[in-house]
Design brief:
about 475 residues, Amidase signature (AS) enzymes, eleven-stranded mixed β-sheet, two-stranded antiparallel sheet, 17 strands
């Protein structure tokens, strides 16, 4: 039996039945990494000695009849999470020797659930790219086409899963960093509702690991099946034990429906600010057809949908408002001068990003107030619908582009070039309002590359999109190993 491409649920069942041991699963995963990762470069820091020890311990526990959610399951962790005794660099060369003394809260939860950690997965410099490469660990390639990116910033995790290097991984998402790599590599990911999963210890090495409530950013699960996302989210969900966890426990509501035919779904494949490539449109339409075939109520338009142009503009301003906080004063003043020179009529996303970089606190409060209106609009929409299906980015995985000036990069959409960062508008649709979003594979439509779509749902009703993802996996199929 080749366990490397089995789901975590299948592996857990085999472990409980005595059909496999954690040592067997772990050794198979290590052998796969040693054989195949030379060309993928997904695992940037291995931890095989401790993984083997953890697997032996898990087998002892299984032999005593103990049962924890991830007991004996090999997993990986995004490099940006603190793991005691392992480097955490965020791809920044000045921190190549930084080794934290304490695990991130989510790493602690993985270990408490019995997971066997194989190592860390690669990221872009400072987690600030839609690709995964840096001067310390090099470039992570897409398992389907090595000249293309695996995505970012959780690109190493997505590539590891697609290559069979562990059954699960944990990543993070601020600008689609869970969903885009899943889309590019043909795996599953879930961006939880903002604040659902504690993020302490997923922090740049220059900063202390404090229980800070972040705006926009979340941590979340990645897997090769929808049910595995639910399994891992149950481990990750819950407040930080140092703060809200003192008083509260999380109990997520059940999914709104159990059957596909009971779901009410709004399907979007067009954005006013950027075209949708033909391959991605085909993926959205395949999912829409599967919903119709399964008896779901599917609509293509709704007057309840918050304005997509304003949503993208607000998202860019919020996203970039924190990006210059540590810029030198001279560089910040140059940005202020550039922003002051913008025409009041310039409503481009480039202008929104520049205005966000230099916005005052007063400006930020106004943007945040507009965000609250969008959140209210989503609440109204989810009174009529259970989920929204839409793209994650406009294209499948694109060729590596290491131009150091990110503003000079261009994204080719069916032969027409567009600003590189404009592709974030679809990811920002869920992120700006803090909504949960599940990325699922929709098939392969262009040059054999995977295409994914996202299922956006109501706040704190994460189980609804996860259930819909599971039902669609049964309807159209799910993960396929790269060929």
């Amino acid at each position: 039996m080749d366990w490397n491409f089995q789901s975590a649920g299948e592996s857990a069942a085999a472990l409980r039945a005595g059909e496999a041991s954690s040592v067997e699963l772990t050794e198979a995963a290590i052998a796969g990494i040693e054989r195949d990762d030379g060309v993928i470069n997904a695992i940037c820091v291995s931890d095989f000695d401790r993984a083997r020890a953890a697997a032996r311990h898990a087998d002892q526990e299984l032999g005593r009849g103990e049962n924890r959610p991830l007991l004996g399951i090999p997993v990986t962790v995004k490099e940006s999470y603190n793991v005691a005794g392992m480097p955490t660099t965020w791809g920044m060369p000045q921190y190549r020797d930084f080794v934290p003394a304490e695990d991130a809260v989510q790493v602690s939860r993985l270990k408490a659930a019995g997971a066997v950690m194989l190592g860390k997965t690669n990221v872009p410099l400072g987690l600030q790219d839609i690709q995964s490469f840096n001067d310390i660990y090099g470039t992570t390639n897409n398992p389907w086409d090595h000249v293309r990116t695996s995505g970012g910033s959780s690109g190493g995790s997505a590539a590891a899963l697609a290559s069979g290097f562990g059954a699960l991984s944990i990543g993070s998402d601020l600008a689609g960093s869970l969903r885009t790599p899943a889309h590019f590599c043909g795996v599953y990911a879930h961006k939880p509702t903002l604040g659902l999963a504690a993020n302490r210890g997923m922090v740049p090495p220059s900063e202390p690991a404090l229980p800070v409530d972040l705006d926009l950013a979340v941590v979340g699960p990645m897997a090769r099946s929808a049910r595995d996302l639910t399994l891992l989210l149950d481990v990750m969900a819950g407040p930080d034990p140092l703060t809200l966890g003192v008083a509260y426990h999380v109990t997520l509501p059940p999914p709104r429906h159990e059957r596909l035919r009971d779901f009410r779904v709004l399907v979007l494949d067009e954005h006013p600010l950027i075209p949708t490539g033909s391959a991605v449109r085909a993926g959205v339409n395949r999912v829409a057809d599967a919903l119709v075939d399964g008896g779901a109520r599917v609509e293509r338009h709704s007057p309840l949908l918050p304005d997509l142009t304003e949503a993208a503009t607000l998202y860019m301003q919020l996203l970039f408002s924190s990006s210059v906080a540590r810029f030198p004063v001279e560089a910040y003043e140059q940005l202020r001068t550039r922003a002051a020179g913008l025409s009041t009529h310039d409503r481009s996303l480039d202008a929104a990003r520049l205005r966000g970089m230099v916005c005052s606190h007063r400006d930020w409060i106004e943007v945040n107030n507009r965000r609250e209106l969008h959140r209210h609009g989503w609440r109204q929409l989810f009174g009529e619908f259970d989920a929204v299906v839409c793209p994650i980015t406009p294209t499948p995985a694109f060729p590596h582009d290491h131009n150091p000036d990110l503003l000079e990069r261009r994204l080719n959409i069916d032969g027409v070039e567009h600003p590189y960062f404009d592709q974030l508008v679809w990811a920002g649709l869920a992120t700006m309002s803090g909504l949960p979003a599940t990325a699922i594979p929709a098939g392969r439509f262009s040059e054999g590359l995977p295409v994914g779509v996202q299922l956006i749902g109501p706040m704190f009703e994460d189980r609804t999109t996860l259930q819909l993802a599971d039902l669609l996996e049964q309807q159209i199929g799910g993960f396929q190993a790269p060929t």
